[in-house]
Design brief:
757 residues, alpha/beta, Rossmann fold, ten-stranded mixed sheet, seven-stranded mixed sheet, 24 helices
């Protein structure tokens, strides 16, 4: 997968969705081709992406296993995300469609809650976020789509504060009373609030989301502007919530009706059905939210009552296969097929069904023919974000014939007011609506369809996308600071020859500063931080380096200064910096002490009181999660989760970060299984700057393994050298695998610098 640095310029618009807009298909000769995939989002977005000069789409390719390399298709740059079989079962079929989908659709089917599903949902979301962050241009726009990826906005923001981030939810957002049932509900809200603009289909969805944020997170809300507190001392952000009803490429759909082949196909469909007087059509994914059973029940009762003559009226029900590995969907298919079988067994004339049941997909041309052949289309969703079938039917009827029966619980009902609106839960009302539609005079049909077509043709998918992107652009400029630089991704160590050449060039510089983190670099990470055993050869190399002419040496650690001193027993020639730069030990006489002004680091009574309160809260969190520990430092309190039991590490960290948003005067630093709360504002990066100035160094080299070390690597100048110990994205120039490699590197520095003396 390319990184931002290996994709010069990046893409100005990156769409992130669960699926790519194409599916792979194996040809007879074994080759693979990519064809446009079905689905409302793809239908809506493909025409938009064709108009973008520099656009990309990030999504899953549709098959478990390794993701194919990025490729071009239909003029789009596509970046596949890897999902294995377990991801599909837990992230997609599990948390997305077994938990979120039923909960967001008013619990038509009861949602299932499994903690393992949530873990996989998080890890899958992080993969989508990482890919999107890598391919977006500096200052670009990332548009994330739908409920499967609700954590992605915040995950992108963690590394790409320079981009605008939009999120659009294609399904309903439930009332706060329902949403409150969701485990990890606050994490979902915070994930969404990583966006600058959050869009929903209906105004009620927008208001539901704002209410959930106000009640569950307690954030300040003014109208539909949400003020999101930063982590600790980070600034407050404004997030806009707006309503954007999605639409279709209505001009393209309407144009298909002029195709002679499609016109003939529509006529042939009616002939194949025995030229009935009326054709009633339902088109849906086979999903329990679509009201298929209610629709069939109403039609069946009308046949039972003798109010519809099966010789003159035929119903077609297209039920596109959907999520057939999920038990609720398999059960629905069985029920629908039993209902259709009963109706046909009791009412179908010889040689023709009363209900023609089509359990397969139709391409766009065949679907248009179906719409043209239908006198009445039933859209009876029990709960639906929008329902594009309703709009596709309207766009397919430039002849102004046909009647749309539309559920008031579908998002489309807010716009398509001239449809026959119905409550699908009321079977009697639904039966009456069907009868009214079948008997509607042509002039009334034309009047209603003219109004419906005006809405659909004027407000197409381009209008929807333009509105959303225009609002996103107006929602506030990206943060001014430069985006985090990622020079290395993955885990592979740097080429040994490159490492050797870099060290040789560095040691030839007249005045050097050599600095290192402690845990994970000079000492392996252990569960008991008090039992750590530093590599004595590495420490010896640092001591000897500090005695060489023109070489300054420092250790910069998150540990308290006294702890660092006792573990390393360094001479006064090595500067010790503890608590991420908040504590500085004794300085060699030749170092310019005035540069390291400690006055800003002093504790005041107010800071002492604040620190005491933080420590008390962290201890309360630790008591709730056995194995979690709290370390106190002179200017900070640290929550350690390395030894937490079960899921305690995840839950304790989440509680600590949620608490951090209430502390506007505290520097909060998440690291490897730690979260540090410092009442003195500093960082390892600030410390390396000060040490470099104090030692008058021409260049510096730093070894680090943690997230907190990235503040150092972000400051690398032209002659400086950053060395990442271990895996993960980093702004360092070089990567080595472990503490043994760090020891060897320090010994090699000693040899090379010794040759210069």
């Amino acid at each position: 997968m390319p990184s931002a640095s290996s994709s010069p310029g990046g893409h100005q618009l990156v769409v992130v969705a669960n699926r790519l807009p194409v599916d792979s298909r194996t040809l007879p000769d074994g080759a693979t081709e990519w064809v446009t995939s079905p689905g409302g989002l793809v239908t809506a977005m493909e025409s938009v992406m064709r108009t973008v000069d520099s656009g990309a789409w990030v999504g899953w390719g549709g098959s478990p296993g390794d993701a194919p390399d990025p490729f071009e298709a239909d003029g789009m740059s596509l970046y596949p995300v890897q999902l294995d079989q377990q991801d599909i079962e837990r992230y997609y079929e599990g948390f997305s469609n077994g938990t979120l989908w039923p909960l967001y659709h008013d619990v038509i089917v009861g949602p299932e809650f499994h903690r393992g599903w949530w873990d996989t949902y998080q890890s899958a979301n992080r993969r989508f976020a990482k890919t999107a962050a890598q391919v977006a241009a500096v200052g670009g726009t990332i548009w994330v789509h739908d409920y499967q990826l609700q954590l992605v906005p915040q995950m992108i923001r963690e590394t790409r504060s320079d981009v605008r981030i939009g999120f659009f939810n294609h399904i309903p957002f439930p009332a706060v009373e329902l949403f409150s049932q969701l485990p990890k509900r606050n994490s979902v809200l915070r994930g969404l609030l990583g966006a600058d603009l959050i869009g929903f289909q209906r105004e009620s969805d927008s208001l539901n989301f704002v209410a959930a944020v106000r009640r569950l997170l307690g954030y300040q809300v003014e109208g539909k502007t949400i003020f999101v507190p930063g982590l600790g001392a980070a600034p407050v952000r404004e997030v806009q919530v707006q309503t954007f009803p999605i639409s279709i490429d209505s001009t393209a759909v309407s144009a298909l009706t002029e195709d002679p082949e499609i016109r003939e196909r529509a006529a042939q469909l009616r002939r194949d059905l025995g030229d009935p007087e009326k054709v009633v059509l339902g088109v849906d994914r086979l999903d329990y939210t679509k009201g298929i059973r209610h629709r069939l029940k109403a039609f069946g009762e009308l046949l039972d009552d003798g109010l519809i003559d099966p010789h003159g009226t035929v119903m077609i029900q297209v039920a596109t296969p959907s999520r057939e590995r999920v038990e609720a969907y398999r059960q629905l298919r069985d029920e629908v097929e039993l209902i259709v079988g009963r109706i046909n067994g009791e009412h179908a004339p010889i040689g023709r069904p009363a209900v023609s049941y089509q359990h397969h997909s139709f391409d766009r041309r065949d679907m248009t023919a179906l719409f043209m052949a239908a006198d009445v289309v039933l859209v009876t969703a029990l709960r639906d974000g929008m329902n594009l079938v309703a709009k596709e039917y309207v766009a397919s009827r430039p002849d102004l014939h046909g009647v749309l029966v539309l559920s008031e619980f579908a998002g489309a009902a807010d716009e398509l007011r001239a449809a026959v609106l119905v409550n699908p839960h009321d079977i009697d009302e639904l039966k009456a609506a069907i009868l009214r539609s079948l008997a509607m005079p042509p002039e009334e049909q034309e009047e209603a369809m003219r109004s419906l077509r005006h809405q659909v043709m004027e407000h197409d998918v381009q209008h929807w996308a333009h509105q959303f992107l225009e609002s996103l652009t107006a929602s506030g400029a990206p943060e001014d600071e430069a985006t985090r630089v990622v020079r290395l991704s993955g885990d592979a160590p740097s080429d040994p020859a490159q490492l050797e050449e870099t060290l040789r060039e560095f040691t030839a510089v007249p005045r050097l500063l050599i600095a290192s983190d402690f845990d994970g670099v000079l000492a392996p990470i252990v569960s008991d931080r008090d039992a750590v055993q530093p590599d004595q050869q590495a420490l010896a190399a640092l001591r000897e380096l500090s005695e060489l002419p023109g070489v300054a040496v420092a250790l910069i650690s998150g540990r308290a200064l006294a702890d660092l001193d006792s573990l390393t027993a360094m001479p006064s020639s090595v500067v010790l910096v503890g608590s991420h730069g908040a504590e500085v030990g004794a300085l060699p006489p030749w170092m310019q002490a005035e540069v390291l002004d400690k006055s800003v680091l002093s504790m005041t009574p107010q800071k002492e009181q604040l620190l005491a309160g933080i420590t008390s809260t962290l201890r309360r969190i630790a008591r709730a999660h056995p194995g979690t520990e709290v370390e106190t430092k002179p200017t900070a309190a640290v929550l350690h989760t390395r030894n937490a039991k079960g899921r305690g590490a995840i839950n304790a960290t989440e509680s600590a970060l949620e608490y951090a948003t209430t502390l506007p005067d505290v520097t909060v630093t998440p690291g490897k299984e730690v979260v540090e709360f410092a009442v003195v504002h500093t960082s390892k990066g600030v410390a390396i700057d000060a040490l470099s100035r104090a030692s008058a160094a021409d260049a510096w080299l730093y070894l680090g393994d943690d997230v907190t070390d990235e503040s150092v690597f972000a400051r690398l100048g032209g002659d400086d050298v950053g060395v990442k110990v271990g895996g993960g994205d980093t702004a360092a120039h070089l990567r080595i695998p472990d503490t043994e490699a760090a020891r060897d590197l320090l010994r090699r520095l000693l040899e090379l610098r010794g040759e210069q003396s």
